[in-house]
Amino acid sequence: MSVARRLPSPIAGTTALRAWMAMLLAGLLLWFTTGRTHALPLQDGYPGPVIIDGSVQSFPLAGRSIYWIDPTGQLEPDEIEARQDLLPWSERTNGQRVTLGESAALWIRFDAWVQHDDVHWELELARSGTDHVALHYRDRHGQWVRQEAGDHLAVSRWHSPDRYPVFTLDTRTEGPVRYWVKIEHARVPFSGEFYVHSHPHLREQRIHQQFLIGAYFGMALLLSLVALANGLVFRDKSFLAYAIYTGVLALSMAASLGVGGQFLWPDSVVWNSRAEFILLPLVAMAGLLFIRQVIQASWIDRRLDRMAVALSIIWVGLIVWDQSEPSTASMQALSAAGAATMALTYALLWSAWRSGERWVRWIALGVLPMLLAGTLPVLRNFNLVSSGFLSQYGMVLAATIEAPLLIYGLVQRSSIQHEARARAKALALTEPLTGLTNRHNCILRLHDALIRAQRYQHRCALLVINLDNHEWFTQEHGREVGDRALVLTGSLLRTVARDVDTAARIDDRTFALLMEGPVRPAQAVSAATAILAGGLRPNEQLPVGATLRFKIVIALLPDPSIELPMDAQQHLAWLHDEADNLQWDRQRNIATVNF
């Protein structure tokens, strides 16, 4: 009734009330079905045995188990069993976080009754990185059965070598079996969840997980190799930094997801227990140095740059401290350094973002998901959030989003830098304003053309073109219009020149077109006519009514009738003088000097 009164109309109130009642009935039905299927009613205030009848293939153990913390961590299962009625057990709920410290142990008790023995059932701790986990129960003969897993054991010595700790439940069907789980997990809070799966369901789940995880690691390996190749070929430190960052990140993901212990180092006890505590800090340090390397420029605050270098050095010291004397304090220091690294990375990206460079913004967008996902492990270490899907797989998802964005940003950055380098290199061969070959390079090519022409007994053509009204453009319309006329002249020469020809700018208003031989006189005249006609066409880039007027001198070289040595510079000077003389002739625009 109260819900209906708050709604704006009776019809809306009736509809909402019916929806609310339907949801309530569905919830009650789900609770009733779940309770009858998976657990008997509470006994003495504690959950009854979990009924495993095959109606569902997987269910969580939260709410169906109780826990107690042994402050000494020294009690054995038979001692716990003997004193179980005297211990202050509490119901274990979903997402519960427990801080154990250096010596305490967490004991979890639950009862399970398998109704059919045609399918094996397994208990899974759905997280990696737990120091030590042991499952205890008595078999039919009253003997203790012990199954172990955890980072303090080599994965090959686990009861069931897997990504996560997995234990086999007893197959007895005549009555419930009581299980005791002992968990030792120092330095960071424990908040893992236990699930009971049928063996086929767990295997199917693993296949799907391994497929998706394998896709990520394949992508990471490919990107690392591509970045390494680009870094070596183009000598770009940014690609090398990205390759290191991606490689370390992939190894860290392998450690935190349990894939590394299962496939890469299954027989190593020391590395299995230390990999995550070494690789995760290295990821933070490599990521910070990668960002610093990529966006290092004059518009980055030098104080931030120095802080990045100093924090990287601090990371090295913290890793050494944590590995030599592991403690809760060292772990908290690493977590604090992680938070500082994320804050500094935000500052670096914001400082770079204000530059307006598009590639910088792609880099920032790529790093952002990883920064957001990286906060979850830090919050978990400070006992602010519980382990869950995002804390386990958040960084993998973020890395998958991050990879294409970072690669695209790096490629954009590299293309801009290579374009600038190519332009700088081209200045040695080309003239900056028009983009044509410069005078020095034109003389070299003319020299080679003269030698080939003499060797193979043919002739090449050299056209010297003067922009006759360049001075008028500059005086009447300014330097900018005069330069525009020169640029248009260069563009016109490029359209007339063949692939084997060379178009060059000789001085302020003089150009040359070297036509490689064998060349007939008609071809040279046709090229000169095309240049002259192209200049007379109206152009929107020039003042209204203005056109490009040229004076063109043509010679076929080498000329046996004149005594000039095979000196390209003398041939060019000869035609340059002829072009200067032609400018006083108002009747002709094209002159041939030796044919």
Automatic annotation (TrEMBL):
Residues 417-592 form the GGDEF domain. This is 7TM diverse intracellular signaling domain-containing protein. It comes from Hydrogenophaga bisanensis. InterPro entries: 7TMR_DISM_rcpt_extracell_dom1, 7TMR_DISM_rcpt_extracell_dom2, DGC-Regulatory_Protein, GGDEF_dom, Nucleotide_cyclase, Rev_trsase/Diguanyl_cyclase. Pfam families: 7TMR-DISM_7TM, 7TMR-DISMED2, GGDEF. Coiled coil: none annotated. It comes from the Bacteria. Keywords: Membrane, Transmembrane, Transmembrane helix. The chain crosses the membrane at residues 211-233, 240-265, 277-295, 304-321, 333-352, 359-379, 391-411.
